[in-house]
């Protein structure tokens, strides 16, 4: 069973990498550089709030911001997966090191899957313009591209994240959408 899951995970990651490379190298794409980086505006949980609700506002009109961040996350995970696969394939690694590497590969796959599921769920439920979910194992950050979020929406997002990831700190950040003229 573990082999089937590993093959499935590697196939999906390979597909993501190929699509990311195609997206980057596509001749009709504009430069993906951006000035407003939502990762730079991530705040710390409010000390006065037991739930750790953190709603930050960033503004920007770049449609590619979330896509670029997703690609950066995928690239970093891909590099980590490659390093872990080298450990598994190494004849110098101990069985404990190989098992740890395999467990980490499985955890990375599960995290990526949970992030993807939450993004698609939120996009289909509320029809937000875009959603980006990132987890580092200790905290989950949910970036939503929307004019504004109500407290009820933030609470709903936080509950969905906790249902999927467990009891972690959740930051909900929304990026204002500039009106087009």
Structural descriptors:
4 helices, globular, single chain, Helix Hairpins, alpha/beta
Task: Report on the architecture of this protein.
α3 packs antiparallel against α4. With 181 residues, the protein is an alpha/beta fold. The protein has a single domain, classed as Stage III sporulation protein AH-like (Helix Hairpins). It is globular. A four-stranded mixed β-sheet has the order 1-4-3-2.
Summed up:
This protein is of the alpha/beta class and 181 residues long. The protein has helices spanning 2-25, 65-89, 95-126, 151-165, and strands at 55-59, 130-135, 139-145, 169-176.
Strand order of the largest sheet: 1-4-3-2
What multimeric state do the chains show? single chain
Largest sheet report: 4 strands, mixed
The H-and-E topology, N to C, reads as: HEHHEEHE
Average of pLDDT? 76
Q: Estimate the global geometry from the Cα principal axes.
A: globular
**Any low-confidence stretches, pLDDT <50, length ≥5?**
29-62
Tell me the CATH superfamily.
Stage III sporulation protein AH-like
Structural class: alpha/beta
